[in-house]
Every structure is written in structure tokens, then in C-alpha cells.
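Notebook entry, structure prediction.
Reason for the run: the old model in the group folder had no record of what sequence produced it. Starting over properly, with the input documented here first.
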Amino acid sequence: MLPNNKAYDQYTRSKILTASPAELTLMLYDGAIKFCNIAMSAMESKDYNKVNIYIKKAENIIEEFQATLNHKYTVAEDFDKIYAYIYGLLVDANIHKDPEVLKKATDEIRGMRDTWKEVMKRAGSGTKDSFNA
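New structure, fully documented this time:
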């Protein structure tokens, strides 16, 4: 079993190292959604320590998106506001252990991810183009 895990880790590492910036952004959105889903499951089982850990992971991804915005584009201000809103939802969900607020945050992240996928599709992002959200 251990060799399979090692092979999977190696595959994942290779996938990340060879991904374009656009693909990395998509992976981060997917990661944030995954962490929210894990937190939601932990919330249902009342494992609040796990809820905190995974919501914090999602928060870190949103903070990274905010920190890497390219403010030479006016759309960055809109993205910044959306990310601040999502971050606030995550914090609120974590403080109050509120599944409805966490679902709302997850839906917002999913919407951003779906929009990003569409941008990639329209831009023909199989290439190693440089995108900044």
C-alpha cells in the first residue's frame, strides 16, 4: 500500500510542477472546495477541531488569491471584493459552526471555479499561458 501512496504523491507533485498558472489556479479552487466539503462533513459529525483545520485551509487559499491579484487590471478590485466576501463567510462559518454559511461559501467558491474553467476554455488554456485571476 505504501508504494501506491508514494506513486500517487509523485504523480501529484509532477502534475503541479508541470501545470500552467491557469491550471494551478483551477487546482487551488478545487482544493478550497474539497476543504470546505471535508469541513462540512466534520461539522455534521461535530468534529469541530477538524472543521476549524479545514476551513482554515480554505481561508488560506482565498487569502493567496487575494494576495496574488494583479491590481494593474481594474477587474482585480472586483475579485478582491468577492474574495473578501468569501473569506468573511468562511470565518463566520467557522466561528458559529454554521453549515448554511459554509455551504454559501462553498457555492461562491464553486461559482468562481466554474467561471475560471470557462475562461480557461475560451482562452484555449491547454497552453502554458500566464493567467492572473
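Summary: Residues 20 and 27 are 10 Å apart (CA to CA).
The old model has been moved to the deprecated folder.
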